[in-house]
Structure prediction request, 98 residues.
Amino acid sequence: MQITIAPYLLSTYKLIQCAFPNGIETQDYLPLLALLDDEMSDRNLAEVMAHYTTKHYGVVLNDVYRVRTTDVPKAEAIDKVKQHLLVCGYEEWLKEAE
Prediction:
């Protein structure tokens, strides 16, 4: 499958793809949004997640807003997702994002 995503989002897409090669499970979706929301703009996060999950951009953007207000994931759930990302180069990705 050919990926048509902005070049500046490709490293994030690859990080998510590495951490969740079989797709993002329901229980990991909102915690992943919450974790990445601290490091990315709303629109960029929504765009990359929409590409990876094939959800509509507007739906993902609303989910990004939800994780800040009504559906804030528990710290344990966010940490579980972070562990997946660490194996795939999350620390390096953070440095790149600075």
In short: The chain is about 65% helix and 0% strand. The chain has a mean pLDDT of 93.
